[in-house]
Protein: AraC family transcriptional regulator
Amino acid sequence: MNQFGLLGVFAGVAVATGIFLAAYLIFIRKEQVLKNRLLGFIFLAIALRVGKSIAFFILRDMAAIGLAIGFLGLASIGVLTYLYVSSGEAEFKPKKMHLMHAMLPIIGAIGCYFVFNTPLDSLFYQSGTAFSFIYVLLSWRTVYIQKTDNDKLKSWHVKLLATVTLVLLSFVFQHLANSLMGYAIGSGIAAIPLYYIFFQALQSPLVFTPTMRVEASQEVIDKVKMAFEERAIYRTQGITITQISEELEVPAYLITRAVKELYDKSFPDAINSFRVEEVKEKLCLGDDIKVEALAYDAGFNTPSAFYAAFKKYTGQSPKAFQQTQILQSA
Structure:
């Protein structure tokens, strides 16, 4: 097997690894579904770009659609990485402005299709690399200024960003190389950080769920139940699982397990459901009560957060709920 073949196999296995990770995160992983799908699409984007390189130096021929798909992967790497690390510990919540981030990769991919086999196709790829680098630099800045007590999450973000940065640098090497062999070597270099992040992902509970299920002890369950039902910790605005963990001297993951066993809800959902129940009880006392005052007393930060949660758990607005209760008691 010649050098091109060896580099093709080495990089090809890395591409298959990236696709495997992407498939697991997009279709199988159930926790923080949207955030893990973002991570999966990062690996898929890298795999598409490296796969395009392999096709170029092995097949020596490239269809316009292949060039366009490779560009889409390249230009999406930085955007996806930025959106992923920006969400911090929380689940990713899509917003309309996120569509703006996605527009250039899509428009660029369409443009690549039409400039195939012209001097402009190289310019498109150079621009796509620069575009992703800008977002990766923003991602590094975000991780640097992000305040979190979750050391494992921060460590994972740093490892992921290091991987993405090295992959993009390998693409820069390809742009600077003046030979087909240099281009092939660039693909081999891109494969190395992919192997690294794959083995790091295997060891990270943030990516692969540990096979051993950790149950909360009865003592922990009792502590959490008392905190919710007797001490009404949900009334504290902006309460986080980290704060409760420190207060109860119980690891955060055990609090999550206890909340799930007690209320069959995630921690944020349990907090909001208790707040809504408290407001519901007080709404039944009379119709001259200021709803928003009740919401603040129950722990909601903003009226919009309260109305959204109330609608979610009751299917009604507070006013409609109150009127229904009055009619039922008449």
